[in-house]
Amino acid sequence: MATGFEPPPYPFDRIGDIKQVAASLPGGSVDLSVGNPSDPVPDLVAAALAEPDPARTYPPSIGSPDLRAAVAGWADRCLGVDLDPSEIGACIGTKELVTGLPHLLRLRFPDRDTVLYPAVSYPSYAMGAELAGCRAVAVPVDEAWCLDLSAIAEEDAARALALWVNTPGNPAGGLDDLGAAASWGRAHGVTVLSDECYAEFTWNGQPRSVLQHGSDGVLAVHSLSKRSNLAGLRVGYYAGDPDLVLYLQEVRKHQGFMVPGPAQAAAVAALSDQEHVDVQRGRYRRRLESLIEVMAALGVVAPMPDGAFYLWVPAPEGDAWGFARMLAAEVGMVVSPGEFFGAAGAGHVRLAAVAGDDRIGLLRERAGI
Asked: Does 2 fall in a domain?
């Protein structure tokens, strides 16, 4: 009997043995393998969640007027971008949107079948293409882990539904030239999808957005998971090209994709406050610097990223799995081998600076700092 799509093993399920080794140390493991926030939910968000009224009725699929106005206000303050609320839509966390966009774009442009994405990047870009029955084509990155647009073959560009960019990048923290990406997309008639969920954790310069270079032919994707420690609330949003946003709003309405009402109300509170984000920025910056010191104590150089809250660390002798097992056995640290983020990432490991200060302090003790 013929079989269809067979899902591959989920990358982070492949390190179960490493987690067991780390957990065997006194005090247990310090899991830095996934970018899973552990810090407190802001008080003003908790207060908004306690209100019962938003749970009473079906929430607007496109996002409530208050939510879209809050996104527009945040974009003006933080990105210097003037958005009309009609150019904004809500999504159930950004991973749902990332993996679903190729399918929706293929319905709109059935003569195109290719999704371009960075060769070292978040695995869901490629998986979304596969789930849509598209070709997933990796675009090479340069020595700064940024997209090399000149390396895109013309035949791939001619078939492309979309080009993904991610700035600051996961896993390596690179900062792409988003203006160049937008220009490339317009020149080739390819939609540029810009994942900007780490924008407020840009360490080298100001937050960047593809929307700073105009909205024609581009879509920016943002999340509350990282900036506000709300990964479990599942609230994201997209904004950009008015025709594309309207198309997505209408199709997703038919699909029944709705961010729960209480989550939308909490998102309004989170987007209206910057103080808690500034506190979180300080936490992540401090933890990154502390983890760099842990790596140094173990004899490994870990560069500070230009953005995001990950360290992208070259493994000694290029043996990422061996390095991951050594870190688990010696200091109880759980990391992700770089191949999870594409074959071009082999030879590195990724550390997510998401564990609390006390847990990172335990790593420092174990490393002899």
From this structure: no
Beta bridge partners of 349: 313, 337
d(CA 172, CA 74): 26
Q: What are the C-alpha distances in Å from 145 to residues 25, 119, 312, 317?
A: 34, 9, 10, 20
Helix (H/G/I), strand (E/B), else coil: 174: coil
Q: Give the integer Cα–Cα distance in Å for 265 and 38.
A: 22
* Cα–chain center distance at 144: 18
Gap between the Cα atoms of 186 and 363, Å rounded: 47
Q: How many domains, the chain?
A: 2
CB-based contact 151:117 (threshold 8 Å): no
Contact 173, 152 (CB under 8 A): no
CB atoms under 10 Å from CB of 175, counted, come to: 20
Low-confidence ranges of the chain (pLDDT < 70): 1-2
Same domain as 149, residue 27: no
